[in-house]
Amino acid sequence: MNVIDVDDVSKAYGDVQALDGLSLSVERGATLGVFGTNGAGKTTLFKLLTGLNKPDAGSVSVAGADPTDGTTVRERVRYLPEHAGFPPSLTGREILRFHARMRSVPREERSHHVERILHTVGLADAADRRVGGYSNGMNRRLGLGTALVGEPAVLILDEPTAGLDPDGIRAFHEVVESLAAETDVTIVFSSHALGEIQRLCSEAVIIADGQVATAGPVEELRRAAADEVTVSLSLGSETAANDATAELRDHEAVSTVSRSGADLRAQTAPTEAYDLLTAVGEAYAIDRFEVREPGLEAAFHEAVGGDSRDTDDVPTPATANSGGEPA
């Protein structure tokens, strides 16, 4: 069952065509990652999903209703902007209780509801501290907590980890992963980091020039976009790495190979990775190795070209290893 349906939507601002026949559907309980370069139309899409704008053509349905129906938006759809501010003199618990009252959570359920959200977003131990002393990451998680009050059907997170340090990003990711695994809320997660979308989302949509450039399950997108894996090897010495690099350049199954010190990287077909590792391991001592499948950036390049802002590949769990023998 789809909780979001966007059908052939167009939206212009004067002479600027922000969306041009964009269509997408999101099933209940999915975590959809949205990526678009600046000016791609992502912000306009979010304004349509939250009822802040109406399309010039086409239709939008969120949680079974037109999002411009204010009551439906308030009750079923929540939007967390990149920056959300709170009165610094209030505590996290007070802010969540205020939102619970505003969203008509029954009085007898309010304390339990707030306590559950505090645990969900990892702020139970800081619930009675003034938010003026919260870190940036804690404030983001408090913002997520306010969006969860009243159990929405759709949660729209607009670059929620932008500007956070690694610890803040990790903590926020853990909350999103918990929500995706333990609830049926539909999460729309936008990010400029394709690797972040790949880690957190089951589905992805890449928007370019107001249209969907590509969309589908994350695993299918990245596997379909490229037919090679990257094998990274660390050998016992630079001399060994230099000799192995020369040999791999003549290997018919290797498309490219590069070396830095005692480390080398080679690209080959997935079916050839094991044989390549075995051949190198028989001739040289391998300190560690890793096999990486293509990431979503491959799908981005195939769909629209250009450079993404995140170019990390993803290790293949079955073959990544730190030992000296192929897994």
UniProtKB/TrEMBL annotation:
<keyword id="KW-0547">Nucleotide-binding</keyword>
<feature type="region of interest" description="Disordered">
    <location>
        <begin position="303"/>
        <end position="327"/>
    </location>
</feature>
<dbReference type="GO" id="GO:0016887">
    <property type="term" value="F:ATP hydrolysis activity"/>
</dbReference>
<dbReference type="GO" id="GO:0005524">
    <property type="term" value="F:ATP binding"/>
</dbReference>
<keyword id="KW-0067">ATP-binding</keyword>
<dbReference type="InterPro" id="IPR003439">
    <property type="entry name" value="ABC_transporter-like_ATP-bd"/>
</dbReference>
<dbReference type="InterPro" id="IPR003593">
    <property type="entry name" value="AAA+_ATPase"/>
</dbReference>
<dbReference type="InterPro" id="IPR027417">
    <property type="entry name" value="P-loop_NTPase"/>
</dbReference>
<dbReference type="Pfam" id="PF00005">
    <property type="entry name" value="ABC_tran"/>
</dbReference>
<feature type="domain" description="ABC transporter">
    <location>
        <begin position="4"/>
        <end position="234"/>
    </location>
</feature>
<keyword id="KW-0813">Transport</keyword>
<comment type="similarity">
    <text>Belongs to the ABC transporter superfamily.</text>
</comment>
<protein>
    <submittedName>
        <fullName>ABC transporter ATP-binding protein</fullName>
    </submittedName>
</protein>
<feature type="compositionally biased region" description="Polar residues">
    <location>
        <begin position="318"/>
        <end position="327"/>
    </location>
</feature>
